[in-house]
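Moderator note: this is an archived Q&A kept for reference. The question asked for a predicted structure of one protein chain; the sequence and the answer are reproduced below.
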Amino acid sequence: MNVDDVKRIAIIGAGDMGHGIAACFLQSGFTVTLRDIEQKFIDRGVAGIRSSFERFISKGKMTQEEYNAAFSGLITEVDLNKAAKDADFIIEAIPEDLKLKQNLFSELDKYAPGHAILATNTSNISITEIASATQRPDKVIGYHFFNPAVLMKLVEVIKGQKTSDESIKIGYDLAKKIKKLPVIVKKDSPGFIYNRVNESTSVLLSKILEEGHPTPEEFDAAFKSLMAMAPFELIDYVGIDILVHGMMYFAQAVSKEYMPSEELLTYVKSGNLGKKTGKGFYDWSHGRPVIDTSKATKEYDINHLIALQVNEATKLLAENVCDDPKEIDIAMANGGGSPFGPFALAQSIGYPVLVNKLEELYNKFKLEIFKPTAIMKEGNIKV
């Protein structure tokens, strides 16, 4: 089997990620079955696809004829068997719960044709553990899109312990066919590339809350001119509960040092989760919060954040999750809003400067995950 044999796509889960991924395949002329457990969720997903395509039309990125052609390839289905039975490539986009995913993959394994590849859009969970619920672990891959999928280019194509090279190649080539930028993750590891590199920053923010200074606004004020959304503001936008869920997973899978602080957990316990509840670190009830840049902290600067990212990226190299620093830079630059990846930034700033920043953080918080790695200290990675 090769990528040209893939004609029919099934997307399981019609939420934000599911319908966004479906839209990508529809635009590229594939027949797509969008499935969810209730018709109301499917209807909501279809409305999301229409909304995306209508925006493309308004911006001159899609014609009405292209819109009609794309929608002619859409099939909706509640019955899982019917959704999977003719599919060549199936992408799961359901909530981040291992048992839930394993149950689904066990069913898909029974219903899908023998040649079909089963892909999971998980952002953190082990591909190997998901694949263990099937009789075809060689055909199970990680296929991590970024939100909003219709706009974001990066797709992490992740190899489980038993995933075949053929399955990875098909996933990689298919991502290119729908005009995405795929990066192969060669080893199943928590957070893969993008989320793993960013997770140590989450720990820093959690520890800052624990210390009580600077305040979220004082911290964000120092970075507001450098990024579209400052760190605490971005967490509010995504959801504090999402951050906490990810940190707890890393605490279990990587190190207890990722465990969220009690101060961070207080926000979740109180129900103040950020934008979606109207309040988190900021008040969102009147729209996007205004951050007073005159309050900028002097305790931290951008090089602290870059140092954490580069340090975590060197661990991916050491653990053989990815063996090419350029691929890590591509993933980081295309998964978020930065024009440069961590290694390009390190090369520009200088490794000694970043090692010094890591040592400052380690001396302040005494966390092993903040310690500069041997690769950081050598500082000879070129991209």
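Archived answer notes: The chain is about 50% helix and 10% strand.
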